[in-house]
Amino acid sequence: MDSTDREEVEGGLRHLHVMEMQTKLDLADATARVLALTEELIARGVVSMRAIEQRMDRVRAAENERTAEQATVQVAPMVDKYQVTDLPDIDCASLVPLCKGRCCRLSFPLSFQDLDEQIVRFDYAMPYLIRQGEDGYCTHSDPGARRCRVYQARPVTCRTYDCRKDARIWKDFANKVPAEDDAIPLVRIRKRPLASAGK
At what angle do helices 3-43 and 49-67 cross, to 10 degrees? Predict the structure, then answer.
């Protein structure tokens, strides 16, 4: 696939994802209308609140189970990461042997700036979250030294993140006591195969 084809495919995917988010917004509006209608029916005595509450737990559990496997589209706010100033002053190089670069296990969405640069990789199953390996670390984190292999192009989230008061990273930053190894649960994204054509 040449660069032109790749740009067209990526542009098409982005358009598809934006349209999907518009559909989600429309669904949220429809949900609000249903809730308003329910309240009106209760107020008029047509249905009882007690009967609705008895059904809610069952319906909510079924809906949570249904949506848990669905992908969502997330995009970070558009901020020029190269113009961001007043960044946290943290000596990461000296702290990595202690914290093991746990911040590189956090999951977050990329911006369109990141996507346009085509340097920082995202997870296709959960667009546009930073891609993570099987070990839970960002795919750009060197497994040995835990240094960022795309440091100059790192997302704005990485640039502005301050680990010092994050209990997932440090139990006590002042005394250099890291959090427990399982403070950040590994994000396991269920990969679902694409449906075959015609099915």
Answer: 170
Q: Is-contact 123 131, C-beta < 8 A?
A: yes
Q: Which two tokens stand for residue 34?
A: 């249903």
* Sign of the C-alpha dihedral computed for residues 44, 50, 55 and 60 taken in this order: positive
pLDDT, tens only, 85-117: 999 999 999 999 999 999 999 999 999 999 999
What residue segments make up the domains of the chain, in order of their start?
A: 3-67, 92-178
The dihedral region occupied by 103, where left means phi > 0, alpha psi between -120 and 50, and beta the remainder, is alpha
- Write the CB contacts of 61 (distance below 8 Å, at least 6 apart in sequence): none
pTM: 0.63
The 10s digit of each residue's pLDDT in 124-159 is 888 899 999 999 999 999 999 999 999 999 999 999
**Six token digits for residue 144:** 């040995």
